[in-house]
Amino acid sequence: MHSLLRRFIVLVSFKIFDQEIQKTISFRPVELTKDVNRLHNWMHQPHVVPFWNLAISLEDYEKHLKNFLNDNHQILYIGELDGAPMSYWEAYWAKEDIIGQYYNVDSYDQGIHLLIGPKEFIGKGLSLPFLRAMVKFQFRHLQTKKVIAEPDIRNDKMIYVFEKCGFEKVKSVELPDKTGMLMFCDRERFKRRWKYEDL
């Protein structure tokens, strides 16, 4: 299916009440004027800089964000906790991404990049509930049987969170901007792990 049509299908907001943390997790599409300053600030946070390499000027970051918003193989989201913006997500079609060159990709595999921005949300046990919600969101596309990730191989904490969510390590991959750990999350395994009857 053409990426524009697929994008139309999935370009929606998503909200779920997480029983574990007793809070509402939601995702909404990034809006340039609304979010550029916020995201620029997050890209300069010490815990973000080593893995995103986007601690650049506001002018340059705005150009970057415009390009990403116009890239039809991905959709950008702001993750919110009880309505408070606190994370950034890139959901993408793996076949149209460089990662699709590194494994036997299916046309409907989706991938994911993420960061938690404000430091006050770090170390609060929020990464797993948010990742779980985003993966569930991606599996709402019924033809997606696998969600993939390729976190920086140095990012042990994030790799651990992916594994807790239901991802399995596949292999390390040399990407243009990093050495990543390719990881797969199978729909059926994810469904069984979290007892989601609606997937």
From TrEMBL:
SMART domains attached to this UniProt entry: AlcB
List, for all copies, the residue spans of the domain called N-acetyltransferase: 25-188
**InterPro entries reported for this sequence:** Acyl_CoA_acyltransferase, Acyltransferase_MbtK/IucB-like, GNAT_dom
Record-linked Pfam families: Acetyltransf_8
> Known PROSITE patterns for this protein?
GNAT
- Which pathway does it take part in? Siderophore biosynthesis
Record has Calcium as a keyword: no
Keywords, comma-separated and alphabetical: Antibiotic resistance, Transferase
**Does the UniProt entry include the keyword Nucleus?**
no
- State its role: Acyltransferase required for the direct transfer of medium- to long-chain fatty acyl moieties from a carrier protein (MbtL) on to the epsilon-amino group of lysine residue in the mycobactin core.
Q: What is this protein's name?
A: Lysine N-acyltransferase MbtK
